[in-house]
Design goal:
Length: 70
């Protein structure tokens, strides 16, 4: 690394995008990935799609349980 950097020609916010969305990588345990791979292959869909379907169902279950516990 240099001791000093010259930012005098820099432009603040040049690459800032207020509505940008970021996809965060999600690392699964190998047994979970194997399950998703086999199940999605059997259903003819991508593992990503199957994982999203399963997570959305879990979210619905959690939200329903929260509503009934109040």
């Amino acid at each position: 690394m240099k001791d000093e950097y010259d930012f005098s020609q820099g432009e603040r916010g040049k690459f800032y995008r207020p509505n940008a969305s970021h996809n965060i990588p999600l690392y699964l345990d190998s047994d979970v990935m194997e399950f998703l791979a086999k199940r999605s292959r059997d259903q003819g869909i991508e593992p990503r799609e199957l994982a999203n379907q399963m997570l959305k169902k879990d979210i619905e279950i959690v939200q329903a349980a929260e509503r009934t516990s109040k």
